[in-house]
Amino acid sequence: MSVPPSSIFAVITGGGTSGHVLPALAIAELLRESGHPFDSLHYVGSSRGIETSLLPPTGIESTFLRVDGLQRSVKIRALIRNVRAPFVLASARSEAKRLLRRLQPRVVISVGGYASVPTCSAARSLGIPVVVVSYDRRPGLASRLQSRYSAVSAVAYLPSGLRKAQLSGAPVRASIRHCMRHETRTAALENFGFRHTDRVVLAMGGSLGSQAINQLVEAFARHYRHDDEVAVLHIAGARNMASDTSPDRVYRSDGSLQYQRVAYCDDMAGAYSAATVVVCRAGASTIAEIATVGVAAVIIPWKDAAENHQKINAQWLTDAGAAVLLDENSLTAPTFIDVVGALLADSLTIAQMETTSFAMGNVHRNCRIATIVESVA
């Protein structure tokens, strides 16, 4: 689809993982709801990122630059990539500059990550205003650097150390923002093959999956295999689908589904509706979605997250009593089984968590990013 340059309202940039790409798509939806159709938007990401598969089906025009992030490994291959990174970045910045000159957008919106760096740098040199969107409680390096010259930083949480911060809420996909879990739960359970009476654990480890969480969830599923009321929907990640200990599906004697492992779920609104308890990492998008739909959660922050930002994200919910926090470093399968099992059996605590979480999610359901972007543009 070819878009005349004069019709481009905004360029959205960032990516690498779904933790950046999904918020970018949510921003595109928010802008469309505000009167800016997808053909007035352009996405710029990395040719190495998951955006290369997530963007094309949306119909949003996109450009993927060859850009690489900092490798924290000390392996030879990683070190070579780090040596090459400045030259790759310079080339990507030149390409981004040519693209922005052609598109002439009124604003560039950064969702952070290494993929946003060349486009934001190019925008700065061309005098195009930049809006930094930060949805982590501890902003990443790219967002911190870009906020120094941005027109405004749209943040999901206050206080914020970013320059010119305005509270916007986190960008959450429309299907999640409009999800009414209790109204759609029966239909969601049926769609996934569970019974209406099942207490479902929805387990997920982020866009790439988590081997640590997967092992805990499989141990939990085996422990409850003969329980007539507990079921598990396990989103394992494509690279973690093979398991020597658990089949992909387990059925009860009556033919109902007791356990299902999938690589990816296209219907997350349905998954949240079916869930009684969510087990997850603490990526910013996941935390925002949990609060937006108002679901009880057991959160296991990734122990190797940069600057421990996942634990800080999780504590927004757990400090308020809206979720349970487990430390990955000391967590064992028996402890995990006990904690999740006890929560599943405590309907009063679950109801309290849901109420608290949903109230906290109001800022995300009424996200102001589109309004902030329009004021800058």
**What is the spatial order of strands in the main beta sheet?**
3-2-1-4-5-6-7
Q: Tell me which oligomeric state these chains represent.
A: single chain
Mean pLDDT: 91
SSE ordering: EHEHEHEHEHEEHHEHEEEHEHEHEHHHH
- How far apart are the first and last residues' alpha carbons, in Å? 24 Å
Please count the helical segments.
15
3D shape: elongated
Q: Let me know the largest β-sheet.
A: 7 strands, parallel
Using DSSP, what is the number of strands? Answer: 14
Uncertain runs are 1-5
What gyration radius follows from the Cα positions, in whole Å?
A: 21 Å
Which structural class is indicated by helix and strand composition? Answer: alpha/beta
Model description:
With 377 residues, this protein is an alpha/beta fold. The chain is built from 15 helices and 14 strands.
Task: Give the arrangement of secondary structure elements.
Layout: E1 10-13, H1 18-33, E2 41-46, H2 51-54, E3 61-65, H3 76-103, E4 107-110, H4 117-126, E5 130-134, H5 141-146, E6 152-155, E7 165-167, H6 174-177, H7 181-192, E8 199-204, H8 211-223, E9 230-235, E10 249-251, E11 257-262, H9 268-274, E12 277-280, H10 284-293, E13 296-299, H11 309-318, E14 324-325, H12 333-344, H13 347-360, H14 362-365, H15 369-376
Parallel strand pairs: 1-2, 1-4, 2-3, 4-5, 5-6, 6-7, 8-9, 8-12, 9-11, 12-13, 13-14
Antiparallel strand pairs: 10-11
Helix pairs in contact: 3-4, 7-9, 8-12, 10-13
Quick tags:
7-stranded parallel sheet, elongated, disordered N terminus, alpha/beta, 7-stranded mixed sheet, 14 strands, 377 residues, 42% helix
